[in-house]
Amino acid sequence: MASDTGGTGDGLTAGGLHALLAWMSPSFPVGAYTYSHGLERVIEDGDVFDAATLYAWLDGVLRHGAGRSDAVLLAHAMSAATPGDEKTFRELLELSLALQPSSERRLEASAQGDAFASAVAAAWAPPLDTPAGQLFARLTSGADAIPRGGWTYCLALAASAAARGLPAGTVVSASLHAFAANLVSAAVRAVPLGQTDGQRVLSRLGTTIRIVAGEALLAPLSDIGGCAFAADIASMNHETQYTRLFRS
User: Fold this and answer.
1) Is 83 left (phi over 0), alpha (psi -120 to 50) or beta?
2) What is the model's pLDDT at position 9?
3) Nearest-CA neighbor of 120 among 164, 76, 88, 77?
4) Bridge-partner residues for 13, per DSSP?
5) Cα 101 from Cα 99, distance rounded (Å)
6) 20: Cβ–Cβ under 8 A, 6 or more apart, which residues?
7) 3-state SS string over 1-31?
8) 65 and 228 in contact (C-beta within 8 Å)?
9) Are 247 and 108 in contact (CB under 8 A)?
10) Helix spans in 11-141 (H)
11) Whether the Cβ atoms of residue 178 and residue 21 lie closer than 8 Å to each other
12) At what angle do helices 153-163 and 103-123 cross, to 10 degrees?
């Protein structure tokens, strides 16, 4: 078993880092690679066709769309889960589901959330000696467990991360990076875009991710909102797209 000693200087232990890297990996079984967040529709329409247009699109989604909203929800949900505040956590979960603007985006959030919670419970079950660990156990097993379709990805991550005592700032940043990296990967396949150009876009988005993560940690819940209307409309139009590689 890997040692849990050592750390990164921000409260993240070696064991915590190991878990977080595994959870954010493309190999973690949530099926992230099957979703494009409406990007496939935008590519079909010709609005994203190279590295520059991809960067502009993803920068907008991160700053003004689901990237920012999910980051704020993730930070607040971790704050609720850490002391075991189940009532507040469930209210945040309901809000995160209500914020989905289309059926495909709800599927994207809930299917990945279900899969994430299930995988963590089966293979990365946190200890039960903290209120957050006990909350995670109640939410994933027994009569009061969240039913299938009732999770969202950001809330499943919040419950899991709080149960392991991971620092919120690191988790929010890692989540935003994973979100951006998955959409870059989708664009590499769908544009198509070269692997190196994809990495250039992801590298440039580092500044955006740091800004959004920092704002999310300080934002009140009432600050949730967005104006990425083109992304929301693209997700709606994707439902009727004739040829599709992705589920959203």
Assistant:
1) alpha
2) 53
3) 164
4) 7
5) 6
6) 12, 161, 166, 170, 171, 174
7) CCCCCCECCCCCEHHHHHHHHHHHCCCCCCC
8) yes
9) yes
10) 14-24, 39-45, 51-64, 66-81, 86-98, 103-123, 131-140
11) no
12) 20
Query: What is the arithmetic mean of pLDDT over 151-168?
Result: 98
Instruction: Supply the pTM of this predicted model.
Output: 0.95
DSSP annotation of 127: P
Query: What six digits make up the tokens of 119?
Result: 């995988």
CA 64 – CA 114 distance, rounded (Å): 25
Tell me the pLDDT tens digit for each residue of 78-103.
Answer: 999 999 999 999 999 999 999 999 99
CA atoms within 13 A on the CB side of 219: 23
| Four-residue CA torsion sign, 188, 192, 194, 199 | negative
Q: 160: which 2 tokens?
A: 């899991």
Q: What is the pLDDT of residues 30-80, one digit of tens each?
A: 999 999 999 999 999 999 999 999 999 999 999 999 999 999 999 999 999
Q: Which two tokens stand for residue 78?
A: 């971790």
User: What count of residues does the chain have?
Assistant: 248
Element holding 172 (H helix, E strand): helix 168-190
The neighbouring-strand residues paired with 7 are 13
Query: Within a 13 Å sphere around the CA of 80, how many CA atoms are in the beta-carbon half?
Result: 22
In the chain, the amino acid numbered 86 is: E
Q: How many CB atoms lie within 10 A of CB 103?
A: 12
Distance CA 107, CA 141 (A): 22
